[in-house]
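PROTEIN DATA CARD
Card holder: Leucyl aminopeptidase
Chain length: 472
Origin: Albimonas pacifica
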Amino acid sequence: MTDPAPLPRADRLVVGEASDARPLRLVAADGLDRALGALDPAQRAWVEATGFRARLGQLCLVPGPGGAPGLALFGHGDAAARARSRFDLGRAAAELPEGTWRLEAPEEHQAEAALGWLLSRTRFDRYRKGAEAKDVRLAVPETLDAERLHRIADGVALTRWLIDTPANDMGPAEIEAAARALAAEQGAEVSSIVGDALLEANFPLVHAVGRAAAPGREPRVIDLTWGDPDAPKVTLVGKGIAFDTGGLNLKPGASMGLMKKDMGGAANVLGLARMVMAQGLPVRLRVLVASAENAVSSASFRPGDILTSRKGLTVEINNTDAEGRLVLADALALADEESPDVLLCWATLTGAARVALGPELPPFFTDDQILAMELTDASHRVRDPLWRMPFWPGYEEKIEPGIADLDNAPSGGMAGAITAALFLRRFVENARAFAHFDIYGWTQSTRPGRPKGGEAMGARAAFAVLSDRHKA
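Structure generated from the sequence above:
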């Protein structure tokens, strides 16, 4: 098994007073006059001459007595502008001169501003020699829970790093190695089920999807556990398709280019697990990753095959490119056998979800009204967008092919995200609450706090829900 590079960590905030810190002042559009009034005449004249109007993301560096920037004003815009954007202080992290800057902002905006700063500083430079980050730091008030922000940012950093790493260095074995490194960091335990005999007998769908991969790329089920066995059971399941060619239903080249991110579900659950464990939430955490490479060889599973799942349900294969729901089915069946209190599943599952909601707004599916309300509230509160979609019973017949219990790829192309979610739900009977997140896992172009590349989606909202339910 290949040892991964050391697990990434986010930058750290400076907490409390820093003697060399210069003010970084958030200025809302409706507070511009007040902010100008707090400056001395020379500073005010400078700011007015620059045309600073406190537009969202606008930065104004104000010279100090020696001529070097001694104060920075950062435009925070109005409520309408802030609703359309997130983590805008990340712009300042890229534009400010090196040194320490002291955040001056209303209390209700401090946490998001500081987290935006941290998330903007996440850099994927594993393959770039001499790529040194600018030495710029943010000092925050002691009243801000900086350690919690560090744990969240560390979880996001891990998720991004896992997705950004190309498939030649992030196959099933490397995903397992990363899980083992995380377990060592947090005092968890990890086991894996690997090998044709064990997988075919216990996880036949995982085996079928991954059996065509080359030696060293064998499929596996990774099982991480942490916490008091008697505590409430929280189980996270992630799709870990290290690369998806589409199998015999081969993807065109344009659709294959980003398939290193098809293990984004696994990356998200490992990042969320890092948050949960580092925060010390009083739960019994279990993380299951079904990992395989959907490759092409004489051993590939075929359209028309009928496979029997771990749960015993038979599945007709009508498209080998709908492999994610197959590996998840076996992992969800295992998770469900333990009757967890909460079972959460992440997957880069369907293009239909992106057609419906776009790349930045992942749908989630749940029958649990309380969990749905908690996730919706948390998504707004922590600015981690989610939108609830239905397990619509009227579409159940679409996943019932007649020749087998289930169809992995119903014809017609309509309601693809819903039919995929309904397929997964067939493997969950005992969990007290279940939710499935159909994520894109990728930021298409650099935005404040969100560099281009792999992305955590829904994990921060889920962490907020779990933190509210289970106080550390």
